[in-house]
Amino acid sequence: MTHFILIPVCLFAGWLLKRGRILPENSAQVLGSFVIYVSLPSLILANVPSMLLEFSFAYLALMPWFVFGASIVFFYFAGKFLDWTVDTRIAVTLCCGLGNTSFVGLPILRMFYGEEVTNAVLIADQFGTFLCLAIPGFILAVRYLPENEKRKDQRIFKSILKKLLTFPPFLALLFSFSLRLFTIPEEIHSVFKILGETLVPMALFTVGFQLQFPNKDSQKIESETSFGSALLIGLIYKLLFAPILIFLCYFFLKVNPKHIKVAVLEAGMAPMITASIVSLQMGFRPLLSAAFPGIGLLFSIPTLFLFYTLLENFF
Predict the structure, then answer these.
(1) What phi and psi, each to the nearest 5 degrees, are found at residue 24?
(2) How many C-beta neighbours within 10 Å does residue 50 have?
(3) pLDDT tens figures, 119-171
(4) Whose CA is closest to 208, among 279, 110, 103, 300?
(5) Which residue has the higher pLDDT, 54 or 210?
(6) What 3-state class would DSSP assign to 212?
(7) By CB atoms within 10 Å of each CB, which of 55, 172, 242, 261 scores lowest?
């Protein structure tokens, strides 16, 4: 019950403090950096060394790759039918092909299933969502950059790629597997666990602080009529089609039910904030890319509760 209260309180508090100009404008960057460099690596180091590995963890890691691959096909045909520009199609694919599986996914799934779900979420996020953005996500983005922009954006691409490949949680995940060979002293494990517990409130507060929505003036600037259709179709795919697709595939493959639940709910998470930033920096429909995480987060709350209820009744 605590997490049912904690999630909206943290989100609203972050949004309110931003609108009230109580905290500095760069607070989201500072808090986000704490989550990335301290909270999430600590949570990984507290859990992964003692994790019991299961074969069906592979399905969790593959879920984001499958959702992203399906999104390329889905949005290609949707773009053809709705006459989207290439920029629109790539922006929607990057933002809605990947989900917010750590910042939002971890708090929500721990709310539903408790702390024991942490390992499954970390596998899905780091080996799934993170690597999917770092490899096929970047290949797609660079592939469709205009020829006259490719040289200029090489520095941006290299900078982002370097950040991804030196991403502290991913490095912590790799290091944590080597720690499985040793016994970690209880005192050190307790420190990692305490620091890791800061992830949920800090991440939710940061997401709330960053919530932004397109206003009438910004939509006038982005004059293409595809703004509304791209936003709607992108969210329908991410919040409804993707989790249904994963459920049908994984149920057919007879995946462990507890991992089906995690995979389906992670597939239905709101659009990924980091992918949105990549789309913004690469110049693919900036206002549309910026709108997806905030609007998607609000609409994902009822859809996630819907899928959670259906899954609990089904299994």
Answers:
(1) -60, 155
(2) 13
(3) 899 899 888 998 898 888 888 887 776 554 555 555 666 666 676 677 788 88
(4) 103
(5) 54
(6) coil
(7) 55
